[in-house]
Amino acid sequence: MVDDVKIDLMKKDFYELLGVPKTATKEEIKSAYRKSALKFHPDKNKAPDAEDKFKEINEAYEVLSNNQKKSAYDKFGHAAFDPSSGGFGGHTYTQQNGPNFTYTQGGNPFSGADFDFGGFSNPFDIFEQFFGGSFGGQQSRGKRIETYKISLSFLEAANGCQKEVSIDGHNKTIKIPAGVDDGQKIRFSEFVLYIDVQPDKVFKRDGNDVFININIKLNQAIFGETIEVSTLKDPLKVRIKPGTQPNTLIRLKGQGVKDVNGYGQGDFYIRLFIEIPTKLTSRQKDLLKQLDL
Questions:
Q1: In this structure, how many other beta carbons lie within 10 angstroms of the beta carbon of residue 259?
Q2: Which of 10, 70, 198, 277 is the most buried (most CB within 10 A)?
Q3: Which of the 8 DSSP states describes residue 220?
Q4: pLDDT digits (tens, 9 = 90+) for 212-252
Q5: Homologous superfamily, domain 94-200
Q6: Does domain 1-93 have CATH number 1.10.287.110?
Q7: The CATH fold of domain 203-275
Q8: pLDDT score of 136
Q9: For 98, how many CA atoms within 13 A lie in the half-sphere containing its CB?
């Protein structure tokens, strides 16, 4: 229900924050961001509210500079990125995270509790990536954070898991959130994890959608049948309709990968391939000819 949607009415319009119209081009958005970010960077601007404004500007730029995020924002406003917004935010942005998207972590990464992987990057990371290095005394904000690589199977990445890792000679148990993808990074307070997802022989991922190819026999396609299909969790019985055509896609809504930021869940697609027999007996050939298929 709309009454249940929690939207921060005090949150400023992203276009207004950058001082650009909705028709602004990517270059105009980039130029406006450059000007505002330099103006409000806390190492340069000592006003009490400078850091808050700097974070707001970076959040606005991260959304408006990304085609998918911008499209979701133009359609739903701030509700597109609010996990509590139900139907407003549910499926508007399930494929937002491409490679090298950074997740910020709140709390102790070794506590075993669920982590708050925010929907937006560290604003200082955005600034440094944009301007090609740190600004002023940014390095003084903390010691250098090391990056470690961790390999996950497809199902571990899709469903989430706990992993034992060795950090500075100490064994730690960390929780990997469901939905992480190959090439993404998870930022913890003490280190950064680079995610390496191993290819899977059965499942293929496209954004948060998952695809699987299934071969069925000719008679199954003609007469229909119920078959068992592997999914991200438990096997599922799927009914093949009589007269199924080659390359038919069966969609299981909401059975794909859970969005790592909580913006809904992808779909699971089963692509059906029909096996055409290559060796037939004489009787089988005669019967097929009589059927005149």
A1: 24
A2: 70
A3: H
A4: 999 999 889 999 999 999 999 999 999 999 999 999 999 99
A5: Urease metallochaperone UreE, N-terminal domain (2.60.260.20)
A6: yes
A7: HSP40/DNAj peptide-binding domain (2.60.260)
A8: 47
A9: 5
> Residue 149, Cβ neighbours under 10 Å: how many?
9
Q: Which two tokens stand for residue 155?
A: 């199902």
In this chain, the answer to whether the domains covering 1-93 and 203-275 adopt an identical fold is: no
Q: Would you kindly state where each structural domain of the chain is located, as residue ranges? A: 1-93, 94-200, 203-275
Cβ atoms of residues 87 and 264 within 8 Å: no
- Name the pLDDT band for 104 (thresholds 50, 70, 90): very low
Which residues, in sequence order, are CB contacts of 32 under 8 Å at separation 6+? 18, 19, 20, 24
At 125 the pLDDT is 57
Dmax (CA) for the chain in angstroms is 89
pLDDT, position 224? 93
How far, CA to CA in Å, does 217 sit from each of 19, 151, 250?
Answer: 61, 37, 17
CB atoms near residue 245 (< 10 Å): 9
Q: How far apart are CA 62 and CA 28, in angstroms?
A: 14
The model scores a pTM over 0.70: no
Helices 50-64, 123-131: axis angle to 10 degrees equals 70
Neighbours of 238 (CB within 10 A): 16
**Are the beta carbons of 43 and 136 closer than 8 angstroms?**
yes
What's 275's DSSP letter?
A: E
| Distance, CA of 189 to CA of 106 (rounded, Å) | 8
Name the region of 183 (left: φ>0; alpha: ψ -120 to 50; beta: rest): left
Q: Give strand ranges (E) for 88-200.
A: 102-104, 146-152, 161-167, 170-176, 185-187, 191-197
195 φ/ψ sector (left φ>0, alpha ψ -120 to 50, else beta): beta
What per-residue confidence (pLDDT) applies to 188?
A: 79
Tokens of residue 271, six digits: 């692509």
